[in-house]
Design goal:
The protein is α/β, with parallel strands linked by helices and 496 residues long. It has helices spanning 3-11, 36-41, 74-80, 103-119, 134-147, 159-167, 176-184, 196-199, 224-229, 239-254, 273-282, 300-314, 327-331, 344-355, 389-403, 405-415, 422-426, 435-441, 457-471, 481-493, and strands spanning 18-19, 33-34, 94-99, 125-130, 154-157, 203-204, 207-208, 211-223, 265-268, 318-319, 335-341, 361-364, 375-384, 448-450. The protein is 41% helix and 14% strand.
Length: 496
Amino acid sequence: MDVLGCIILRIMSPISIFVGIIIKMKPTFVISKILFVVCALLIGSCQPVGENISNTPSPTSSNLLASPTQTYDEEIQEDSNGDLLNEKIPHGLKLEFWHPWAGKTAEIVEELVGIFNQENAWSITVNSISHADTDVFIEDLTEEFINKEQIPDLIVSTSQSLRTWYSEGYPIKEMDLFIKLDSEGSTEMILPEIFPAFWNIDVVDEKRLGVPAYQSGQFLFYNQTWGYDMGFEDFPGTIEAFSEQACAAAKSNLYDTITENNGTGGWIFNSESLPLLSWLRVFGGGDLINSRSQPIFTQPENVNAFTFLFDLYMDDCAWIGRISEPYSYFSNRMAIFYSGQMEDIIKQINFDNDSENNDTWMLIPYPSAFGKPIVMVEGLSYAITTENEERSIAAWEFIKWMLAPENQALFVEKTGTFPLSAEVIERMDVEAEIYPIWKDSLQYLPYAQAEPSYKAWYVIKKILEDIGWQLTQYTMRPENIQTILSDAEVMVRMFE
């Protein structure tokens, strides 16, 4: 049996998380990390579909939900009769809310949930339950959907998972009716006007399956002070300028008096899916599935991007650290760049404070070969999973409360993520330590590109990560890149 066949058999094992098989042979594609969540999301229909993001207006637009093909929940529609939707909520409901957040983010969510439980007019009690991370969360909820047991009332998950669950007939409630009735009634609280780049993510075939909960940008963290010390007056805006500064930093560390930092200095090589997708977009690629749902990894732009990353690594202008977190390397001038999310702003500031690092740094977009900055964003969305009318309306009120500008501002201040609406920016604490760097990053909001949300993305992101890993192996040769990408296409087709 060939390597790909062996891997597929292991992927389809129903018992646990698995890892790929590493077999030394001629250059071929090997999956090193594919999680059980891939199978969980692909249990029903495995056919990948292209993205279908409608240009749907945000809730305060005058042509809100004007499409005649909208499908509303008939029971709520017939019972409303012009009354306030929230008048249907009985006193003292208890809702279960599942999310994948952990650590500090889970703590701020728990704090907000506690405030809602104390303040809401219906004495609703929301019980928030963390599921460690996104992969674990999706696996847990998919299992509950299949077994039809302990399904929560509302969730936060990826847009891709919402689409998949909805297409398989699991209870992901369409939200169009709630928004419509809020806009027509006299309810005191409606959704804020969410930025279109985020608002359009959760719409499939003119049906809204979710509402954005948070969105985080993928940036390059750049040490301005070190760059200036080496004679660079500005951050790199082109691929060539990025390579020049990364290699200059590596050379600086190689020829200084400190031997411990030899081999460091440039960009910390990152093989996670979103940084790699960002680099593909830098070169004009990254559209890994075409309009016919066929994989197209071998496009010349993708080959050029992976070749660039391979060359950068082989020239010692990119390197891999022994510890996974980049903060100490960045603070100690062992990296002039690293790829990070906006949540890393707070973590980097805290590390700098502890290490008394006074260098000035900033978030910059990925450089572009076409003059347009590249900022990929990933996030999660609220969705309602109860099929009970009263509980779904109560869940909707909770979602609106969480997205109220004053509550979103508190969430953003503690996480460093993008604001979902302009009103949030106005309520941010300008004295917060993250504020100057965070505010500066907002100039790139118009360039935000959402991560893919088609069904095959969970497979593809694991494949991308393995390709990134292969680029750093001593057996790797530039002529192998085309073969690796061809094998990646074969792997994706196996899930169709």
